[in-house]
Amino acid sequence: MIQGDYQLTASSQVVAEPLLLLHFILASIDPKGNPARISAELLSGFLSEESFVYKEFVFDLTTDELVEKYIYEVATATRNLER
After folding, report:
1. 33, 36, 32: which is closest to 53 by C-alpha?
2. Could you give the CA distance from residue 77 to residue 71 in angstroms, rounded to a whole number?
3. What phi and psi values does residue 26 have, to the nearest 5 degrees?
4. How many domains, the chain?
5. 2 located within any domain
6. Which domain holds residue 36?
């Protein structure tokens, strides 16, 4: 038998350092239930919105237009993260 005090906090933080989780998904793969999204859900419970960012990029590189669209989306997201 273990005796002693036991305490559980309602909200805890694991780290204070900012964390960025990027997930690149091929358009032919269903993004629901993927490990990255599940990890993001779990981590968001421990990290503040200011210190945790999760971004998904769904891409299809079958045409030049889709490649350009993907490059534009990633470049825009990168610029927004730098701010």
Report:
1. 36
2. 10
3. -65, 140
4. 1
5. no
6. 19-82
